[in-house]
Structures are given as structure tokens and as C-alpha cells.
Specification:
The structure holds two protein chains of two kinds. Chain A is of the alpha+beta class. Chain A has 15 helices and 17 strands. Chain A has two domains: 289 residues, no CATH class; 58 residues, Orthogonal Bundle (Arc Repressor Mutant, subunit A). Helix content of chain A is 40%, strand content 20%. A nine-stranded mixed sheet of chain A has the order 3-7-8-11-1-12-13-14-15. In chain A, helix 5 packs across helix 6, helix 9 runs antiparallel to helix 10 and helix 14 crosses helix 15. The longest helix of chain A is centred in the C-terminal third of the chain and has 23 residues. The radius of gyration of chain A is 30 Å and the shape is elongated. Chain B is an alpha+beta fold. In chain B, a hairpin with a 2-residue loop joins strand 2 and strand 3. Chain B starts with a helix and ends with a strand. The chains are: A alpha+beta, B alpha+beta. At the A-B interface, strand 2, helix 1, strand 9, strand 10 and strand 17 of A face helix 1, strand 1 and strand 3 of B. Strand 2 of chain A pairs parallel with strand 1 of chain B.
Chain lengths: 491, 95
């Protein structure tokens, strides 16, 4: 039987607020010694009063609007009760039946088609404390609790079970992260745990629309891990069904180094969270005026930016898509255009835009990928690249040597002029020097010279190569070609 | 309204309370009485009254996102049953 893959994703993103969700301890715990960003509120002591962080609400509304969600007129928080030492209060403040927003969508391109993936809800809750598991030499195991992370604002984005392949799920996740980064509401860093993803996976006979037993997959700590785990899980379920067995509804954890998911069936009875309204937090009205003010302040999102790159700069949809996939690269691109003064000259803008795009999508991305670097870590600045491009335009350096210079700039952070001078990459502008190189090439290669004169056009390319090599790549290829033709013209 | 022995044991388990046999029946009676007491609310006519989760009139109380000092680490850990590496040491959690 043929099966259809059904995937829904649940994403948790830490928000980039300065303080925590319900108290004003610093939310920046990454480099803090254990238990130094803690107060009676986030420690869950009796008698304290949590107060909602306004910025966290704003960030969540921004995200919800970017995901085309409906914003609740009135929302509230609820207590989700469960006993676990990373939950110091014995409950997590979350949102149960009145999330900040619901019913949105995100357009995702995958497997040759663009589809709208439904967003069930975007809501807000608080992160838990961090547990460190230890083993005593004697064999006793115990846990250490660091409460710094407890209470950091955590936004949850739940998708509908609309994703139909692991690749589509991966694209959805990457696009979602890019949007959060454009909005500036989260770092989106999966490896550091500020952007987490759990998945619900099930299969159903192709052509049917009911949902069968689903498996929740956890513990995926990178985009690659999500893709591999989903691929594995889909295959596993196909095999189980293929044997005529049933899928057990359960939670499975991805084991990265073994490349498998394993059952995390617990002896616990079914979760009974006993949600009830958080009595310490009054309901929150999200006035239409405030929501509209937030909507008006939304930055340009990747899709709109890509469209602008096409309409304003004349880029191809392919280039525009690559340039806007990450905010940092798109910013870099626009900085280059501004610094080059290209935005003020509409007649040459498309040409300049294409040149900058070629540099960034070619050399720049190649070097970033080779060094496994982020755009922000590159040592060559937009100003450096623009000056280098200026040198090419002036004829001070050939394009081939400019690429060599760029690599050096990328490596050392040096200015283009310095690299060109030190590496001797400047173009030979001295016409006499060029003439000498051409004469030497003609004298040293009588056969190709005779071939060319006999009408063999390819022989000229060989001679050009000889001159370029002798010049160390510093001769202007166009000038060399013209000079060779001139010299070898039949008299 | 009465609750069953099973429900008492379930609630005790969720609250991580170990009950002696005698306590189960005593609590079953007490919890049932409490529920009955609150069941009186069901008799009130709430037609046209919007549901609320709050008994106070406050709404939309938020604070600006400004960091304020946390407590000193020693104060935070003062009540820790066991302290190790500046953390709370607790029994291993396995799920």
C-alpha cells in the first residue's frame, strides 16, 4: 500500500528580551554562573507576584502577525501542573485555551511546489531550569539544578499536520527561523537550544484523510538532525505497517550518533496537567490599536524583501531568494549597494546589483561555507568589497586577480589596496610592458603563430594564455587579445 | 457529589503524596464534601454573565522590559537541601 507522510512541528523559541517573562531577572544566562539570575519569583517561592513582560507580548504579537495569525482580543495565562525538578514551582505558566494568536499560515517551497502550511497557534510560556545529570563514582546518580534559565520567555509555534515530507518540514523550520531573525525576536540558534523543535509524525494510506496513531519525536538539535530523524521515522513506520503491525502511539527520542529514534515509553501514567487559569495574572487585553501599531512597526520580511530585490534591483528570483534567505546576507548586499552609490543611479543599478550579487553568491558564500562561518564572522566588510569592485572597474586589477585579492581580504581583513600592492596583483597598465610580453610570446611560439595566421582561431587563445601567465594574471585580457590580433594581422 | 477511591489515589500520585490506608477513606469523604460545597455554585443562574478566570477587575498589567538585580547566589541557595557546584542537588530524575 502507498502511504502519505503527515508531519506537524512544535517549535519553542526563546525570546530576546532583556528580562525574564514574569520577573525582572536578566534573561541573558548563557555566560552567567549558576543560580545568579534568580529571584523569589522565578525560584517559585510562596507569596510572590509575577508580572508579564510587555516586550515578550510585543515580540509574540509581531511573530503571530508575520505568520498571518489572528490575534486574540483578550488572552490569559494558565498553570500547567507537573512534577519535575526543572520546574521549581511545580507548574509552568503557559497558555491553554486562549493563546495570544491562532490560525495563521506560512508559505513553504519544497519538492517543486509552494504550499501554505497552517499555523495552529502562537503562544507564550516560560522556560524551565537547567538540569545537569551526574554520576557518583560509587554509582549513585543525581541531578544539579541551575535556575537561571527558569522563567526566560519561551514562544511556542505549533503547526497543523500539513507537512508532507521531511524536506518540507526542514524548509518550514528554516523559513520560520529566518522570519524570527528578521523580526529580531529570537537568535534562532538550534545548537544552543534557543530554538527547539519537536515533531509529530504519522502515516496514512494515500488518498485518505483520517489521522492515524502518531509518534512524537524529540531531541533533535540541528536542522540536519530534524531532517534525518524524520526520514528515519517515516521509514520505520513504513516498515512496521508493511509487516502488518500497528504504530504504537508514543514518544521517541532521536539518537544522533546512531542515527535512530528510540522509544522513550515511561512508566508514568498519562500526563494530567490539570490546567487552570493563573490566579496571579489578570487577563490581558490586546487592543486593536496596539496590534495595529505593532503591525505598522514590523520590519520588511524575507519574502517582501526578495520581491523588492527583483523589482528594484532587477535580480533574478533565484538570486533574490538566495540573498534574502538569511537577514545578514541581505543586509550585507544592501550595504554594498549603498556604499557603491548604486541606489542613486537607476540606470546602472541592475548591473551593479548583479555584480554585487555575483560576488556574494560566488566567492563570498564559497569562502563562508569552506570556513563554516556565518556572515557576521566574515572579516571582509561591504566597504572593502565595494572598493575592490571599484579597482576592477577602474582597470587597476583584473577580475581574476580581484578574486584572489578577495580571498586574501577574507582571510586577513586587510584593505583591498594593501592586498593588491603587497601581492603584486595590480594590472599592468604600462603599454610598453604589455607590448614586450606580447612580443616575447610571439617569438617563443612560432607554431601557434603560424597556425593562427593560417586561420586557426583557437591558436590565439593559446597565445593569450602564454601572455597572461607571463604577466602573473595582471594583464588586462581584453587589451592582450587586441594587441595580439593587431600584431598578427596579415599585412 | 462523591469521588471514588481511585480518584483520591490518582490525585495523591499527581501531588506525590503517599497516603496511609486510613487516610484514603478520610480524604475521600473530605474531598467529596468540598466538591459538594462548591457544587452550590452550579445553582446560580449565570445566563448572560461572561465567563471569567478572575475575581478582581484588573486587566492588562505589564511591566517594561528592564533588568533589575537578582538575589545573591548564597541567598538563593540558602534553603537548598544539598548544595553542589553552586546548584541545587536533587535526586536523579529519570523519565
Amino acid at each position: 500500500m502507498e502511504y502519505e507522510t503527515v508531519i506537524g512541528l512544535e517549535v519553542h523559541a526563546q525570546l530576546l528580551t532583556r528580562s525574564k517573562m514574569f520577573c525582572r531577572c536578566s534573561a541573558d544566562y548563557a555566560a552567567a554562573p549558576p543560580n545568579t539570575h534568580v529571584c523569589p519569583v522565578c525560584l517559585g517561592l510562596p507569596g510572590v507576584l509575577p508580572v508579564i513582560n510587555e516586550q515578550a507580548i510585543r515580540y509574540t504579537v509581531m511573530t503571530a502577525l508575520a505568520l498571518n495569525c489572528a490575534i486574540a482580543g483578550v488572552t490569559k495565562f494558565d498553570r500547567k501542573n507537573y512534577p519535575y525538578p526543572d520546574l521549581v514551582k511545580g507548574y509552568q505558566i503557559s497558555q491553554y485555551d486562549t493563546p495570544i494568536s491562532h490560525q495563521g499560515w506560512l508559505a513553504v517551497e519544497a519538492d517543486g511546489a509552494t504550499r501554505r502550511i497552517g499555523i495552529t497557534r502562537v503562544h507564550l510560556e516560560e522556560d524551565t531550569a537547567k538540569l545537569l545529570h551526574r554520576n557518583e563514582p560509587g554509582g549513585e546518580t543525581y541531578s544539579l539544578v541551575d535556575v537561571n534559565r527558569s522563567g526566560v520567555p519561551l514562544m511556542e509555534i505549533v503547526s497543523e499536520p500539513d507537512l508532507r515530507s521531511p524536506e518540507e518540514a526542514r524548509r518550514y523550520l528554516m523559513k520560520l527561523r529566518t522570519i524570527l531573525q528578521y523580526l529580531g525576536v529570537s537568535t534562532g540558534n538550534m545548537e544552543e537550544g534557543s530554538f527547539r523543535c519537536d515533531a509529530n509524525v504519522s502515516l496514512r494510506p494515500l488518498g485518505t484523510s483520517e489521522y492515524l496513531s502518531k509518534v512524537e519525536v524529540k531531541n533533535m538539535n540541528s536542522f540536519r538532525a530534524v531532517f534525518r530523524a524524520l526520514q528515519y521515522e517515516v521509514e520505520r513506520q513504513q516498515q512496521v505497517l508493511g509487516r502488518g503491525e500497528r504504530i504504537v502511539q508514543e514518544t521517541r527520542g532521536w539518537v544522533e550518533d546512531r542515527g535512530v529514534t528510540v522509544s522513550q515509553r515511561s512508566k508514568e501514567e498519562a500526563h494530567d496537567y490539570r490546567y487552570f487559569p493563573e490566579p496571579d495574572l489578570p487577563p490581558l487585553a490586546l487592543s486593536p490599536a496596539w496590534v495595529e501599531e505593532i503591525r505598522a512597526s514590523l520590519p520588511e520580511l524575507p519574502e517582501a524583501r526578495g520581491e523588492r530585490f527583483i523589482s528594484h534591483y532587477g535580480l533574478s528570483p533565484y538570486d533574490a531568494g538566495l540573498l534574502t534567505a538569511g537577514k545578514a546576507l541581505a543586509d550585507y548586499f544592501e550595504s554594498c549597494l549603498t556604499l557603491a552609490g548604486a541606489k542613486d543611479k537607476p540606470e546602472t543599478l541592475p548591473k551593479k546589483a548583479k555584480e554585487v550579487s555575483n560576488w556574494l553568491l560566488g566567492e563570498f558564500l564559497r569562502l563562508l561555507n569552506a570556513g563554516e562561518l556565518e556572515v557576521e564572522q566574515a572579516r571582509v566588510s561591504p566597504a572593502g568589497l565595494v572598493r575592490l569592485m571599484g579597482l576592477v572597474e577602474e582597470g587597476a586589477i583584473t577580475l581574476a586577480n580581484a578574486k584572489q585579492a578577495f580571498e586574501e581580504m577574507f582571510r586577513t581583513g586587510q584593505a583591498p589596496e594593501q592586498v593588491v600592492a603587497e601581492k603584486g596583483l595590480a594590472q599592468i597598465s604600462d603599454q610598453e610592458a604589455l607590448a614586450t610580453l606580447v612580443e616575447q610570446a610571439i617569438a617563443a611560439n612560432p607554431r601557434p603563430v603560424a597556425d593562427y595566421r593560417a586561420g586557426k582561431e583557437q591558436a590565439l587563445s593559446f597565445l593569450m594564455g602564454q601572455v597572461m601567465r607571463a604577466s602573473g594574471g595582471r594583464a588586462d585580457p581584453q587589451a592582450v587579445r587586441e594587441r595580439l590580433r593587431e600584431r598578427l594581422r596579415p599585412t | 457529589m462523591t469521588i471514588s477511591r481511585q480518584e483520591v489515589l490518582h490525585i495523591a500520585r499527581l501531588a506525590r503524596l503517599g497516603l496511609a490506608e486510613a487516610e484514603v477513606e478520610r480524604l475521600r469523604e473530605q474531598l467529596s464534601a468540598i466538591l459538594e460545597h462548591f457544587a452550590a455554585l452550579a445553582a446560580v443562574d449565570t445566563e448572560g454573565v461572561p465567563p471569567t478566570a478572575q475575581s478582581i477587575e484588573l486587566q492588562s498589567i505589564m511591566a517594561p522590559d528592564k533588568v533589575q538585580p537578582s538575589l545573591p547566589q548564597d541567598d538563593i541557595l540558602a534553603n537548598a537541601p544539598r548544595r553542589q557546584e553552586d546548584c541545587f542537588r536533587v535526586k536523579a530524575v529519570l523519565e
